[in-house]
Amino acid sequence: MQYIVLDMEWNQPWPGTYAAKRVLPVRIRGEIIQIGAVRVTDRQIVGDEFQALIKPKYYRKLNKKVVSLTGIKDAMLSEHGIPFPEAVEQFRDWCGEDCVFLTWGFDDIGILKENMALHNIDSSWIDRWYNAQMIFNAQTDGATAQKALKTAMQMAGVEASRPAHDALGDAYHTAILCTRLDLPRGMAEYDKALREHENGFHGAELPGCLERHVFHGYETKEAAMAALSGVENRCPTCGKPMTVSRWVSQQDRRYMTMANCAEHGNFLVRIRLSKEEDGIRVSRLIYTPDSEAAQTYEKATEKPKLRRRRKRRSSHERTE
Q: What are the boundaries of the region Disordered (predicted)?
């Protein structure tokens, strides 16, 4: 068996643009523009590498935040990018047989599957995957929160030798970290690590969860809440705007609300706010209305039953 350490970069349309409003055959959180991967042998030795730049088909204009973060520009993709189906075919041929995928975070595999579904490509061959972040936490400080790759590298004494926010660079640094872990034990104990991670808020598979998405760069909490109640609040089925009821506050800067699509009905929306270097990040999950998470919202918004006060008897009545 071999390990394929995978990282990707993807583009998201700027809110309010034509691309953002466009309804695709399959709803995606972002269109992949770069795939980077590093092979780690069964003896946990770093092997060969794979990289592909992808010319976007749907979100053709790069978001300026993506350009700033990754250094990838429209001209680079136009000149060197290849169609997504071709990139996936090359990647699968490079991976070979009997492999396990490792990522740093939960988003990459989900977004890869969404993009493959958009292009009618079978994704069953990437079903066997693990978030190396969870294995690292379990075998180091026991933390249950997400940990940035840069932070983990500092903890492990790994010097950065590749650019950050580059798919191949991040995959390489993740691969170095993986060689210092007990991967077989980590995979055997993975379910336990997931259960302990943030109460499952960012878990791999959540019952009733239809969609997960991470938003970046809001200046304030108020701006983030307004966006998640407005322009970013779209139906996971048709992509049309939804209306929201009141937000219910939970612990650790978490909030939930019931949103409504005129065509497809209610959906529970859960978000968590956290600070980043450039502002506020929002992690959002959308659930079916019959999920356990939705039941939690219903209980939280139930009005307490008013007890009827017994009428006090007068002293005259008590003596009769």
A: 293-320
